[in-house]
Amino acid sequence: MRTLPEKAEEFRRLHHGTTPLVLPNAWDVPSARIFEDAGFPAIATSSAGLMVSLGYPDGQAMPKREFLAAIGRIAGRLSVPLSADVVAGFGRGPREVARTVGRVLDAGAIGINLEDLDPAREGLFPVAAQVRKLRAIRELGASRGVPLVINARTDALRHSPGEHAERLREAIRRATAYRDAGADCVYPMGLTDAASIETFVAALSCPVNVMVRKGLPSLAELGRLGVKRVSFGPAASYATMGLLRRVGAEILEHGAFDSLVEGAITFDELNALAVPRPPAA
Amino acid sequence: MRTLPEKAEEFRRLHHGTTPLVLPNAWDVPSARIFEDAGFPAIATSSAGLMVSLGYPDGQAMPKREFLAAIGRIAGRLSVPLSADVVAGFGRGPREVARTVGRVLDAGAIGINLEDLDPAREGLFPVAAQVRKLRAIRELGASRGVPLVINARTDALRHSPGEHAERLREAIRRATAYRDAGADCVYPMGLTDAASIETFVAALSCPVNVMVRKGLPSLAELGRLGVKRVSFGPAASYATMGLLRRVGAEILEHGAFDSLVEGAITFDELNALAVPRPPAA
């Protein structure tokens, strides 16, 4: 078993490869473990996926204690590094947010996503306030001896005023401040077109995360644009729920079970996902 | 909101229709809610699906407290009746098993599955011991005023000695005893071929549950054979994990995201699954 600092270092290295790190976001133990078995070198959680799976809408309606327990369950069954989406940090100020991140490290994760959208009012936090939180998290990591990977998300492209060009400038301004406060990677939510990605990456000179969605440039193209990390966001939850919806319609409308039994894994394969992967021989 | 007794009565009625009740087994809130939205009139849990999703192998390794919390989360977000697979009842004797079922009712479910395979030794419980548990559950329901639906599973087809015909006789003998002890429905695990299903149904004269699997007769044929309930077992978990495995292979081998973004639901649709369905207008 590697230590948390070793896992954090490994996760950081993955952000500096010649091709983008593809980071699948899971929401429970088997979704995380099946991605690990598929060969992904690190796993992240999706806040929407994880919270909805436990009966809470995305945001911070979920009690922090339940959230941390869920992160602990997943981290405890993974061998590869885990990054946790902590939304806005489950706290108001830098001290409270850093305390949340400390609990996330206790749970076994070595990376976090922190966003600058205030879930209470759907507006952006002031840059200075967000910077204080990021600095507090960086200091927390240093004091704990865990060089955790901070992915700083900005929602400026969706929630700041003006036209696209103006919003892009604001996203760059915010991401730059977050990088300078100690973020390892920045994540402009809603950045999807090649031209904007190129502009953003050129302005930042640090790893940039984009999220998979329909219409995003191909992985090869993203690599050429200088993107260093491509995450799923809640896409895998959307996809599996889409499958279950098709399963339901097929059975209720046609009495057929094909999409339920085709391409499925077995009982033993499912059961094996509940426990850590056996060490390679 | 209907009361537990009303939900239990409704669930019981669904076992006596002219076509089989198709009962999808879910494992968390959104898998249950998406099946409800698809139009299924009742939902069940899969023990393997639910337990693995929380990091425990199928069986009774999961702490009872966590198991009951998971049932409560799902029941609390459903409008239709929920049946819980309680494996062997999380207890040794009739009193302990009935206490578990009482907690399952407290959590909001109105049906249970109880199996006669001892998870501790992978052998069948004596019939008389299983009968005592079923009677205790029936009495618990009566004392609580909740006519819960008991689905008594027997694993005789897989775990009793002899050839298929001998095992089928043992499964019928056990299912008959369970029915007479108060089970509403019997569930011979591993019953899949039309001839055996026909024999079994004719011998029982009470609702019989079969589980979906590749090679099972069609739903229409199962209806002609007299089957009253067709459950998914862990099939939906197998199917979704199969999808995630394909997603992973497609991305890691081909750099493509098609199976991740095609046929998916949206963020708002996912988020809506965390809360009870709005009442019909």
Short descriptors:
3-stranded parallel beta sheet, alpha/beta, 6-stranded parallel beta sheet, globular, 13 helices, TIM Barrel, homodimer, 281 residues
Assembly classification? homodimer
C-alpha-based Rg of chain A, rounded: 19 Å
What average pLDDT do the residues of chain A reach?
97
Give me the number of helical elements of chain A: 13
Here the CATH topology of chain A equals TIM Barrel
Number of strands of chain A: 11
CATH classification class of chain A: Alpha Beta
Helix content of chain A: 40-55%
Main-sheet strand order of chain A equals 2-3-4-5-8-9
Structural class of chain A: alpha/beta
Q: Give the CATH H-level superfamily of chain A.
A: Phosphoenolpyruvate-binding domains
Rounded to the nearest angstrom, the distance between the terminal CA atoms of chain A is 15 Å
The outline of chain A comes out as globular
Protein chains sharing the most extensive interface:
A-B, 70 and 70 residues
CATH architecture of chain A: Alpha-Beta Barrel
* Largest sheet data of chain A: 6 strands, parallel
Which regions of chain A are unreliable across 5 or more consecutive residues at pLDDT < 50? none
